[in-house]
Design a protein that fits this description.
This protein is of the alpha+beta class. The protein contains four helices and six strands. The longest helix is centred in the C-terminal third of the chain and has 25 residues, at 141-165. The model is unreliable at 2-24 (pLDDT under 50).
């Protein structure tokens, strides 16, 4: 196939896309959806579910929400942002005070039995739990409530795990 013919085929494929598809952001969010592209939708969904939700910014200038559940404070971090806007994913994150018993083996034991959440520990024995959620196109309110239910359940699971393995 000649380069000219290949160019025509490529041009034809581009022209066959629906109007606006090539320029539409993956992060656009419908009004009735909950998505990282609209941080206020996350705040509203958290508050509707009975959580506190303080919208602020992280050290890079991206949106961040501070909240609490299951006796722990946590943050909702926004990722895959374009100029601190139009974010595409979230990370629920809870950090814990340093504890000498929190080692790589301890974290691996926790992570081994978990599907949606992961723990990480640094060299100062500080651990955090992280739960990532993609929201491109948005989550309907019931889906976001399920995300919250998983997150708070996992925090509760961690509380039980810690009491059995750190005492």
């Amino acid at each position: 196939m000649t380069p000219f013919r290949l160019s025509l085929i490529s041009a034809g494929l581009t022209l066959s896309l629906p109007a606006g598809a090539a320029t539409e952001s993956k992060a656009d969010c419908a009004a009735d959806m909950v998505c990282a592209a609209n941080p206020q939708s996350i705040v509203a969904a958290l508050q509707k579910a009975g959580y506190t939700a303080e919208l602020t910014k992280d050290s890079l200038g991206d949106p961040m929400i501070n909240s609490a559940a299951a006796g722990y404070t946590f943050s909702v971090l926004f990722y895959d942002c374009a100029d601190h806007l139009k974010c595409e994913s979230l990370q629920f994150q809870a950090s814990f005070d340093p504890n000498e018993k929190v080692t790589a083996d301890y974290v691996n034991k926790w992570n081994k039995g978990k599907r949606f959440v992961r723990a990480a520990v640094d060299d100062k024995h500080e651990m955090d739990l992280r739960y990532d959620v993609a929201t491109i196109g948005g989550l309907n309110p019931a889906n976001f409530r399920d995300v919250l239910d998983w997150w708070t359940s996992l925090l509760g699971d961690y509380s039980n795990f810690a009491s059995q393995n750190l005492d």
